[in-house]
Amino acid sequence: MNKITIGIPKALLYYKYKDLWINFFEELGCEVIVSPNTNKQILEDGIKFSMDEACLAMKIYLGHIYYLIDKCDYILVPRIKCVKKHEKLCTNFSALYDLVNNVFDKNLIHYNLDVEHKEDELYAFTTMGLTLGFPYRKIVTAYKNAKEKETFLKERRISKQKSLIASSNKIKILLAGHPYNLYDEFIGKQIEKILEENNIDIIYSDQYDDKYLETEVKEISPKNYWTYNKEIIASIVHYQDVVDGIILITSFPCGPDSLSNEMILRSVKIPITNLIMDEGDSNTGLFTRIESFIDILEERRKGK
What we know:
Elements: E1 5-8, H1 14-28, E2 31-34, H2 40-48, H3 56-68, E3 74-76, E4 79-82, H4 91-94, H5 96-104, E5 108-109, E6 112-114, H6 121-131, H7 136-167, E7 172-176, H8 179-182, H9 188-197, E8 201-204, H10 213-217, H11 227-239, E9 245-251, H12 255-267, E10 272-277, H13 283-303
Parallel strand pairs: 1-2, 1-3, 3-5, 4-6, 7-8, 7-9, 9-10
């Protein structure tokens, strides 16, 4: 019997849930195909299938979906509405499955995650596994094993970042934003390369122990109910005393980010710049802005 092949777009929530997704399907015995890093062709394909008003991250995502068509049995497109009670996600994530299904009408596999309606993560993954035809016990075991691996890998990344902060005396910049902005080849990776070429230590906002999230987020935004934006804000509060500056990375035109970023920019006391990325961004202009920001941080260190 041939293995079921699951395609996973390397965009949007892939960068937050990849360890859970990949390990879950592999535990079930599926073959997993991940689309490649974002390139010019993927971006152009995504723009072709997107509305003009869609954010850059969504345009990239649709390009990755198009790449996976006919390369796998199912493409994973989750519908995630609420991961914590009394909080929300951007409507793109709750409408994602319907949007992709209407645009491409291909074999999709999805799960619904909405804790306010008693659809937690275990329930969501169990339902998805049953849809694929796997037995209940195998699905639950696969989910628990994948969850353990996800937790282990996250803790290892956080520990590695703490060690970097403690051991290095180089200029440190916190890259703050959604993981799909931080790590996508077309968005955050080009910023990362410029910082590395300038001998900067990079700290990432998603590599953050959220033990004190609810307390830390209130220092900037007491009433914010966007889950993923709360995580960014709390990480900024957590790291701002151990970095020299902060670069906020946003996909144009993100609604939740535009609100959260305004509060962040007004509240943070160290140098901070907001890079709003779209498909027309010039590498030359980006390089100039980041180098100017690094110059500010170097002069500030000399002043101290």
